[in-house]
Predict the 3D structure of the following.
Amino acid sequence: KQEVTQIPAALSVPEGENLVLNCSFTDSAIYNLQWFRQDPGKGLTSLLLIQSSQREQTSGRLNASLDKSSGRSTLYIAASQPGDSATYLCAVDTGFQKLVFGTGTRLLVSP
Amino acid sequence: EAQVTQNPRYLITVTGKKLTVTCSQNMNHEYMSWYRQDPGLGLRQIYYSMNVEVTDKGDVPEGYKVSRKEKRNFPLILESPSPNQTSLYFCASRAYRGSSYEQYFGPGTRLTVT
């Protein structure tokens, strides 16, 4: 059974810092891994999708990497801003018609 | 604008009173699904639908029903809600992208059952 873990559960940093969020999964047989952002009272916004054949994806200040063999993904946020404060979720598509989610990392970026 | 919409966004109800949460997508996606999100448990799939009239159970289907009579709509039905169904509910659809699927989520429905 696929399990997804995110560490840390919460993170507080001052504005401007570069930071790394971690996601690990137990079964390397995945189709893709998706990073989402969740703001209070709002839905999930897709940030990056990494196909199983890819090593990384970049969008603006965000860079996500994927190492299937070790069951790990990282989301790197450069030059963090207060507007980055949110909960970040990673989810893996195992090909069984669903995503398996981690419980998220709650990020607070202070001015 | 491409989107998944849900209604209502917030709902407080009492035990046993039937309710329906609607979900609609305007992207012509064949696949739709429902998840619930609970603290410490993450998001878990309730039901999914591969196409019109094709539905199947996810990981936590007990106490829920769904229907898929039209491609764009996928309502979630709670015939007799109980307090343990108090949760944040998300509807999703997906599109084929590259060599796999990318999921799109609605804004969520916060349900409280007293």
